[in-house]
Amino acid sequence: MIDIKILRENPELVKTNAKRRGCDVDIDALVKLDADYRALLTEVEEMRALRNKLSKECATNPAVRDQVKAMKDTMAAKEAQSVELKAQVDAQMAWLPNFFAPDVPVGADDKGNQLLYHVGEKPQFTFKPADHQELFERLGIIDTTRGAKVAQAGFYYWSGAGAQLLDALFFWTKRELVNRGFSLFYTPCVAKEHTLFGTGYLPFFADQTYKLEGQDLALIGTSEQTLVGYHGDETLDAAKLPLAYTAFTPCWRTESGSYGKATRGIFRVHQFHKVEQIVFCRPEDSEAQHIRCLENEEHLLKQLGLHYRVVNVCDGDMGAPGYKKYDIEAWFAGFNDYREVTSNTNLTDFQARRLGIKYSDRATGQKGFCHTISATAVTDRVALAILEHYQQADGSVVVPEVLRPFTGFSRILPNGKAE
RNA sequence: GGAGAGGUGGCUGAGUGGUCGAAAGCAGCGGUUUGCUAAACCGUCGUACAGGGUAAACCUGUACCGGGGGUUCGAAUCCCCCCCUCUCCGCCA
Fold first, then answer.
1. In the predicted structure, residue A305 carries a pLDDT above the cut 70
2. Strand B within 7 Å of which CB atoms in A 32-61?
3. CATH for A4-93?
4. Which bases on strand B have an atom closer than 7 Å to a protein beta carbon?
5. pLDDT tens digits along A93-105
6. Among A249-258, A297-306, A356-365, whose mean pLDDT is lowest?
7. How confident is the model at residue A58 (pLDDT cuts 50, 70, 90)?
């Protein structure tokens, strides 16, 4: 949610931004709606003030009772009308996107993203590297057929050495983040509509959500929803900021409308697994915290020995809540291309306004809405990148050094066994 | 799933129709005292929205005692529905 005062004082700014983000809310109409609402609100409040004043006289002078009674119907009608107008304003405000950082590139889609830099080198192979789908089949560590049998296409099993590799990756990642000042959480894997709205997933990505029948609950699309929602309707002590949280959860997404996109392997699926980074901070600190999360992501990928590039995501590729976003695209040897493995967004006060997450500085008296940063640490995709990066001529896959203490093995053999 | 109890300001906790935005205590904040700390004493201390004011201070109004609806001139207080929390029993990872 943006500050409605900006809409009132500078509608052109909002209009330009809405246009750039493909938002079709009629800004002029909204400004007028809001003005109408406030005029009516003033009227209603004046009537109430009069009513309250006269009511006090009723105790000593019963005669004014009839006068107040006569006001009731008009008052009720105007009250109802103002509630209705407010609801309309709120409904439109909910669709207004966040503003962009000044350095967000212009572009239609991910092709417009600005390449910032590469890290590491592409691995060299003496053979044609397999993509992860081929590797699964060879190693028998992922099973999409049974995933579809038991659940649906888009679900899958990791098993044996593959599951152990994934386990090691997630455990190691959480440990690294804790060492870097993050508090570890286990969160609910469902959340109510208000939480999804507050984090900006509703109304913008409504069709991506798995809803639970007959309940005000949905499967989470990311632990961002439950971790940011954690501090909803709270005022945080500025002296304790920034707060950095991490959690591992499954993430569910219907991916409706994305059929046919990256269907090979398990790159785009209905359920994946993620270690997340969430930061709550003061507004002036969010740029630095955004970088902090990016550095964490890079630290992890560097330790894993993966080759990747960092991009500054363009306007056309960014969701409505985002102010600025860095994606990291790892090299997938089998795909022979870079693919997104992590995503790191500065949401400024967009979520905090919707959820009511404020900060208060006792020393200076400064108050306001927090800024939130939401960044991937690792997901299944990182494990896929590992598989493609570390495949050997003999069909085995070498485990990155840092994960070996957690896997207990250093190589996954072509038969799926580990040694 | 069955039975009961309860939801009031940051916390504890009074308050059953107007004088209640709400007693008191604690915490917080400002001050006095003190060599320092502690204690004591005095003062202060909710949020949101709208309007005014210099986008500060501040002033005015409205709303808020879990949420929604109702009764009434007037509701924290009476009535209805819902949500949540706690306790006991049952079941169970």
1. yes
2. 38, 41-42, 45-46, 48-49, 51-56, 58-59
3. 1.10.287.40
4. 18, 28-29, 48-51, 61-63, 73-74
5. 999 999 999 999 9
6. A356-365
7. confident
A4, A34 in Cβ contact below 8 A? yes
Question: What is the CATH T-level fold of the domain A110-412, as seen in this structure?
Answer: BirA Bifunctional Protein; domain 2 (3.30.930)
The candidate with the shortest Cα–Cα distance to A381, out of A345, A346, A319, A332, is: A332
Do the domains at A4-93 and A110-412 have one common CATH topology?
Answer: no
Name the closest nucleotide to A52, judged by C1' and CA: B74
CA A374 / C1′ B57 distance in Å:
38
Q: Which of A226-230, A350-354, A357-361, A387-391 has the lowest mean pLDDT?
A: A357-361
Strands A357-360 and A337-346: unpaired
Structure pTM? 0.94
How far, in Å, CA of A180 to CA of A202, rounded? 31
Give the distance, in angstroms, between residue A362 CA and nucleotide B31 C1': 18
> Is A233's CB less than 7 Å from nucleic acid strand B?
no
Distance A69 CA to B52 C1' (A): 31
Where along chain A do its domains lie?
4-93, 110-412
Q: Where are the alpha helices (DSSP H) in A21-63?
A: 27-58
In whole angstroms, how large is the CA radius of gyration of chain A?
A: 26
What number is the ipTM of this complex? 0.89
